[in-house]
Design brief:
Largest sheet: 2 strands, antiparallel
Radius of gyration: 38 Å
Shape: elongated
Number of strands: 4
CATH architecture of one domain: Alpha Horseshoe
Structural class: mainly alpha
Order of helices and strands: HEEHHHHHHHHHHHHHHHHHHHHEE
CATH topology of one domain: Serine Threonine Protein Phosphatase 5, Tetratricopeptide repeat
Oligomer: single chain
CATH class of one domain: Mainly Alpha
């Protein structure tokens, strides 16, 4: 196909050349120039050729006159690139003083001044020289204001000056759209400061930039939304945030837990209970079932009955045993709580199970075992070996391993045993 196209183009050029030559042969044309007593007469073809030759000669003269300056600028630009490269390498190696020196020299080249100043500020910040970093950012702000703003906000956050970073970025956002790096810093600063409205506004703007991979953005979005739910000051504000989420977002486990805990804390446990129960019907989660016991004292008996109904389907769930133990503790069913918690410790011991067992033993007036359980909670939290329980208590705990048939995604039965 390409060869046929080339042949066709050659034919068109040949025909055009033949036609032009024939036309010039019939009438070569005439060009007359008259200036200050000078008079030149020639054919059109020769005039065109002479004009082209004159343009070529003048171009060569122009290049020859300005060649030294252009060569010097090229050399300076090349040296600037080399100095920036040296500065970046030195900064990566931790030699920040040398990096600052190389980047300062590179900043003398106008075309490289902005990136050199920004990297110089970064190197000074890593070295702990806040004054030099601020001075470099002040210079860079005249050339690359948004990049300097984003870097200044990041430095403030790194130094723990969250309020200053938040004020800086909020003021800048009111004047003009922020670059992605500044939006990311604003989300972080607003989240730390509990300013959920600003964090959500920045997140909405950041969504449009597509600056993060899908998985990383989903994590950032989840963390931001969970913080907004946790910090909601009133029930109506919480309901507004929750209703504004998409269906997929409302099914994310951290968001369900954050909403349930906050709405229960605001005195509305029924929506919290309903959301967790609906989520557990969709997909079993150890974190969700643990949160089921953290919704306050309301409807404890009903929640206990519901949780006991899950035992048949999830007999090897340490999280379910913890929830059952905590709910029994809240109902002052100390003996029953100790049985469930002992079963959970036999499945997968952790600090929360030991702590809840200590609470149950306090209710049973067994102070010695309660103290052991609390010590074990601390040891488990630190990853240390736990103490053994008294023989009398071990005999009362139901630590028999449960075996339940589970199937893989392909329907193949798999035998799952609890950890010993």
């Amino acid at each position: 196909m390409r060869s046929w196209t080339a042949v066709l183009l050659l034919l068109i050029v040949a025909v055009a050349a033949a036609w032009g030559w024939h036309a010039l042969a019939l009438d070569p044309g005439e060009v007359r120039l008259r200036f200050a007593g000078w008079r030149i007469e020639t054919s059109f073809v020769f005039g065109v050729i002479a004009a082209l030759l004159l343009w070529a000669i003048l171009s060569l003269i122009f290049r020859a006159v300005f060649w030294p300056g252009r060569a010097l600028r090229r050399r300076a630009l090349q040296r600037g690139h080399e100095r920036i490269a040296d500065g970046l390498i030195a900064a990566a190696e931790g030699r920040h003083a040398q990096a600052a020196k190389s980047l300062e020299r590179a900043a003398h080249v106008q075309a490289l001044q902005a990136p050199a100043l920004l990297e110089r500020a970064r190197s000074a910040h890593r070295r702990g020289d806040a004054e030099q970093a601020s001075a470099a950012l002040d210079e860079a702000a005249a050339l690359a204001p948004q990049a300097a703003l984003a870097l200044r906000a990041r430095f403030l956050l790194d130094d723990g000056r969250n309020a200053d970073a938040l004020a800086l970025l909020k003021d800048a956002m009111a004047k003009a759209p922020l670059p992605p790096a500044a939006l990311r810093s604003l989300i972080e600063a607003a989240g730390r400061g509990g300013d959920s409205a600003t964090a959500l506004a920045a997140l909405s703007a950041y969504t449009k930039t597509h600056a993060l991979a899908d998985a990383d953005f989903a994590e950032l979005e989840t963390d931001t939304l969970a913080a907004a739910l946790t910090n909601a000051p009133r029930a109506d504000a919480l309901a507004g945030i929750w209703s504004g989420l998409s269906r997929a977002q409302r099914q994310r486990e951290p968001l369900v837990i954050a909403y349930a805990r906050r709405t229960a804390a605001l005195g509305q446990p029924l929506p919290a209970i309903g959301e967790i129960e609906s989520a557990l019907r969709r997909d079993w989660s150890e974190n969700l079932v643990r949160a089921y016991a953290e919704l306050g004292p309301s409807d404890v008996a009903a929640r206990l009955r519901q949780a006991e109904g899950w035992i048949a389907a999830q007999p090897n769930s340490a999280g379910l045993m913890l929830t059952l133990g905590r709910l029994c503790n809240q109902s002052e069913l100390w003996g029953k709580a100790r049985e469930y918690l002992g079963r959970g410790l036999a499945i997968a011991p952790d600090a929360q199970l030991w702590e809840a067992l200590g609470d149950a033993c306090v209710g049973l007036k067994d102070e010695d075992t309660a103290q052991r359980a609390y010590r074990n909670a601390l040891r488990a939290a630190r990853g240390e070996k736990t103490e053994s329980l008294p023989d009398t208590l071990r005999g009362t705990l139901d630590t028999r391993a449960s075996v339940v048939e589970q199937r893989s995604a392909h329907g193949v039965p798999t035998l799952v045993l609890p950890r010993q």
